[in-house]
UniProtKB/TrEMBL annotation:
Keywords recorded for this protein, A-Z: Membrane, Transmembrane, Transmembrane helix
Protein name as annotated: DUF2127 domain-containing protein
Keyword match Transmembrane helix: yes
Organism taxonomic ancestry: Bacteria, Bacillati, Actinomycetota, Actinomycetes, Pseudonocardiales
Positions of transmembrane segments: 85-113, 120-139, 145-168
Species name: Streptoalloteichus tenebrarius (strain ATCC 17920 / DSM 40477 / JCM 4838 / CBS 697.72 / NBRC 16177 / NCIMB 11028 / NRRL B-12390 / A12253. 1 / ISP 5477)
Domain of life: Bacteria
Renumbered residue ranges of the record's region Disordered: 1-24
The keyword Transmembrane is annotated on this UniProt entry: yes
């Protein structure tokens, strides 16, 4: 009597996994294991801050597109000014606004990532910056500043909703 081929044989061993040689991930500390998950409110606030941080970068682009008009208006308003002087002054103002926009965007991005990580100091810093933004917008409102301020206010409110408050409380480090 012939047995079917391979009836007594076990299947061949599977090849080793390509990650068998990697060390396991370090275990979480007791504090890290007890951290609450990030709530939707904090994630939504984070993305609002990202949008808000990148929007000032559009200002220098808008200023460049209106450069000739700005020079013309300045020359018409003061007859003692000369065209080349005004053109240089306008370009310096645009360059300054571009540098300022990059610095503000970088700081807001840093604070947004810290908020997402649950750092309360970043939440407070962004709240203070929002208060300043609302103050400046109230003094000199424009469509871009109104939209930017509205985004900042929404992001700030999201950071202080009950689930977000619990998240920030849960992120406090032991002994601090």
């Amino acid at each position: 009597m012939t047995d079917s081929p391979g009836a007594d044989q076990s299947p061949p061993p599977s090849p080793p996994s390509p990650v068998d040689h990697l060390p396991s991930a370090p275990s979480l500390s007791v504090h890290e294991a007890a951290l609450p998950p990030r709530p939707v409110e904090v994630t939504a606030s984070f993305w609002a801050w990202i949008v808000g941080a990148l929007s000032p970068l559009l200002l220098p682009v808008a200023l460049i597109s209106e450069r000739d008009e700005t020079v013309r208006v300045a020359l018409e308003s003061d007859s003692t000014l000369e065209g080349p002087q005004v053109a240089v002054a306008v370009m310096l103002a645009i360059a300054f606004s571009a540098v300022l926009a990059v610095v503000v965007a970088a700081l807001c991005l840093l604070f947004a990532f810290k908020v997402r990580a649950g750092r309360n100091w970043a939440r407070i810093t962004l709240t203070v910056l929002t208060v300043f933004g609302v103050s400046f917008t109230a003094v000199d409102p424009s469509w871009p500043s109104l939209v930017s301020t509205l985004v900042a206010v929404v992001a700030t409110v999201l950071m202080f909703l009950p689930n977000a408050n619990a998240y920030f409380r849960g992120q406090r480090r032991p002994g601090g």
